[in-house]
Amino acid sequence: MLATETKRIAPPKRLMYGPGPSMVDPRAYEAMAQPIVGMRDPYFLEIMAEIQAGLRQALGTNSEKVFMVPGSGSAAMEAAVVNFVTPGSKFAIFAAGHFADRMTLMGQRQRAVVVRLEKPWGEIFTAAEAQDFIERERPDVVGFVQAETSTGAYQSGRNITAAARAVNTLVIADCVTSLGAMPVEMDAVGIDVAYSCSQKGLSCPAGLSPIAVSPRAWERVEKRAELPFSWYLDLAVMSKYFEPPHVYQHTPSPPLYYAMHQGLAVIEEEGLQNRWERHRRAGEKLVEGLQRLGFQLLVKRADERIWHVTTVTPPDSVDEAKLREALLQKYNIEIAGGLGQLAGKILRIGTMGPLATEENVAFLLDAIAASI
Amino acid sequence: MLATETKRIAPPKRLMYGPGPSMVDPRAYEAMAQPIVGMRDPYFLEIMAEIQAGLRQALGTNSEKVFMVPGSGSAAMEAAVVNFVTPGSKFAIFAAGHFADRMTLMGQRQRAVVVRLEKPWGEIFTAAEAQDFIERERPDVVGFVQAETSTGAYQSGRNITAAARAVNTLVIADCVTSLGAMPVEMDAVGIDVAYSCSQKGLSCPAGLSPIAVSPRAWERVEKRAELPFSWYLDLAVMSKYFEPPHVYQHTPSPPLYYAMHQGLAVIEEEGLQNRWERHRRAGEKLVEGLQRLGFQLLVKRADERIWHVTTVTPPDSVDEAKLREALLQKYNIEIAGGLGQLAGKILRIGTMGPLATEENVAFLLDAIAASI
After folding, report:
1. Does residue B351 register a pLDDT over 80?
2. Mutate to test the interface with A, among B251, B260, B334 (most CBs of A within 10 A)
3. Which of A87, A233, B114, B237 could form a disulfide with A111 if both were Cys (CB 3.0 to 4.6 A apart)?
4. Domain spans of chain A?
5. Is the confidence metric ipTM above 0.90 for this complex?
């Protein structure tokens, strides 16, 4: 008899205070229990269109080209890179964290010339730095991370897009952690390609990842001379499924669509601005509380912080791995350690969706206080 | 107010008699309603290992290298191609259907030299044809489709693997439609890279796609001179998440894992051989009934047919699109039309998982009889 036989799924009820995956909204669970339908069923196409409309709102874009990449946030990152970063072209990356490094790897795999402006992890880029870098390199495409989950640093991207547009360079923005919890404002900021995920600010499970493309970027897709290396992530092929006549490309996952539909409905009911404000306030409370407990913030300036992902170094007396283990064992609380060069050095704490309230922040702070 | 606001998910209850997505097992729905946990949570790693064990059984392999690609079956196809078909190498494809054509496109995107042995859609390849093609072309990799969903034709692959092994050629097999409903038998057949999906024979929703790699194929991954174009689907990177120390690569989707765990548990409880036999019998009943109603089989020989995907041309008096529409409207039954060159010409009818019973076949036949 194998281990799976007769066994039912009975996970521990974790409180997902990490930087994502975050708590799934109860309405998303309810939605996933609803029966699947076919990929071109009239009902499914209705849900698809409503998700696209909801994503346009949450991303802050009027672009028609909004799709749900069938995969994790990294699939959406790769979709952005393979469709816009061509072999031999110059791809300039603003690099101050793990996900900028991941974007670098993907650019290199496309056999592009990847150049990087590097700053210490946790910092963001000034307008002068962006302008200088872009004017010097004159890249075809630039990439930056709006909310760098590995460091807790946020920048809208306005410093970067202005310089990029001046030299007709496309701007790819990693909005994996910003969408649904703080401003993306794709059109207002001037982002050409914004991608995200489902398992952070949208309070859904992972596996379905939004991508939006500006009209001027879409022109490049239409005029391209060479096909991208990926068929699965080719947006020209994929778009034909998301637009009439909805030509079969991949088989979508209805439960993930149903969940995202409800995640977006919850955001619309609360109001996007209200939701941002709630995440901002919860983050402030968490920052205050952690400082009281002797934790040091990695991102010094409040206006450079992701509201809902707080990164701290623990007091000398606290072992970060032991604290994480204690919280998991005693309270079913998941928080995360650092990634890459910050592994073992920092803690990353998320307060997203249902957890972004004063009560839930207080509960977490009490648990941490009792465990250090 | 947007369309999504306050709206709950309330899909029609379709009977999924298409070639996939098929009916989701009730236990998979129940599993998806369970709370998510983190991607390295001890509970999640336990579920992951049990899925891998269940997949080894269902695929018929002892290989340690069994992974769940985060995406649809086409993501798994692309994972197979990008990891084993290198630029400039020769990729030989046995082409008699839509999914062999898709594999061709993916091979071309890798800048490989793709050669094809073409036969009419619905046919399979003899040992002599396979041997002649492989000896003539001496390819680095061959690709074939074990169960060609677009035509209803099945071939185990034994005719192909024998010739391929004789010249040290790797064999990629598309097992998207065979897994869980009829024999894959990866090791016994001699397949090196087998990939599949979740939404057909496993009775799960789409979005998580198994791939298994033989030891001799994995050696090529380890000895490769150049990185594949894809980072997201790079099996060397991905494998580090599926094996200790479970290094973060992508964020997995817990509901899809939970569903697959239960899908495999249901198969183990029934017994793989029993399940195959049930699908075989249901397919026979359907074939008999459709012939009685005047439908013609596309695949003439019984031993070349996919048991659970039956492909037929309707009688002259029947318009296939109108029949599909009538079944959907009157009975909530989804069946599918043809793909590509068979669009408008054939119907594709699936009897998988919960629907592969005599009663459910009889119900479908009654509905068809009443609609033509």
Report:
1. yes
2. B251
3. A87
4. 15-20+271-371, 26-267
5. yes
